[in-house]
Amino acid sequence: MELWYTEKQNDNLALSYRVRETLHVEQTPFQHLAVLDTIPFGRMLVLDGIVQTAVVDEFIYHEMIAHVPLNTHPAPRRVLIIGGGDGGTLREVVKHPGVEKVTQVEIDARVIEVSRQFLPELSCSFDDPKAEVVIGDGIKYVAEHRDTFDVVIIDSTDPVGPAVGLFSREFYTSLYACLREDGLFVAQTESPYFHSDLVARIQNDVGEIFGLARVYWACIPTYPGGMWSFTLGSKKYDPLDAPVERMPAYPTRYYTPAVHRACFAMPRFLEERFK
Question: Which of 14, 34, 54 is the last residue of a domain?
Fold first, then answer.
């Protein structure tokens, strides 16, 4: 018997993955959590019926959400990660030699605990001496910390459930106050094909609050449409001017200086949408 997991993207589109084995299922206080061993993408984390990450291609997402902002800021010492309970973003951030402390705020402790058990490739840096893990509400944490961080990374789920507020103009205003005078942040901002209105709205909000907003993208096979966007807001530094050819040496599988420059180049249909 064949077993398939289907994620419904909208009323007209669904994505299916052939499953070798269901490894874990539970209802946490915040969301439905599952880990599936799929044939095309290996072990996969699913929250509230939405695929979050898979071991075969997770490196693309995590390298792009971490290294683009960290190589844009010339001296990122204190970094905040909101969400990212699978640990992949933290794994990439601690690679940067100049980073002194990384605070990760995850609302659901079970995501971290289950990732430690089933996704060790991603969750391998929770015990790093640079890392501090806080179980709590990221929106509240940001509001309570002013002028504290050089870089903030919003590694959130889709804008449903606990993550809805992370896509709001109010939260971006709070982020501005949380960052130091030359700080910047990046957030995953969904599919630029299926959610172009959302991406355009976020770019506009971030641009008005920060003064500089850049949308960039990467190809991530497990995500709907394969094309995924990130939005960077900066008080001072433009990622297009970053001297990435002088980036420190650390292992990557997707991100390179050339990719850093290229990921801001938009196909014409998106260039016209995200002016």
Answer: 54
